[in-house]
Write a structure and sequence with these properties.
The protein is an all-alpha fold. Helices cover 68% and strands 0% of the residues.
Length: 100
């Protein structure tokens, strides 16, 4: 059972990182979220950040059954990536021309 969880976790992290790299380099977004994402590069960076945070949390914390500071940092990085994903759904700032 443990090996199934490790393989499923590794597959999820790999897919997240692959989607993030595709979003950064080409601007491609997963079809389920394509209508909501306004800034695909930012979304790609958040996917990549989430994959790093998830891998730190899963493979250095939960599966080893010990509590350390690195898995906690990984959890905070993953939660921060969710915040960046919310920012990717908002329009970016536009430069305004000054009147002077």
């Amino acid at each position: 059972m443990h090996m199934y969880l490790v393989v499923a976790g590794a597959l999820a992290v790999t897919l997240m990182a692959g989607f993030g790299i595709a979003g950064i380099t080409t601007g491609w977004v997963v079809p389920l979220g394509r209508h909501r994402i306004l800034r695909p590069k930012l979304w790609g960076y958040s996917q990549l950040l989430g994959a790093v945070g998830m891998s730190l949390w899963m493979f250095l914390g939960v599966f080893r059954a010990r509590f350390d500071v690195i898995p906690l940092i990984g959890w905070f990085v993953f939660m921060g990536s969710l915040g960046v994903q919310m920012l990717a759904q908002r329009p970016g700032r536009r430069a305004t021309k000054s009147a002077s």
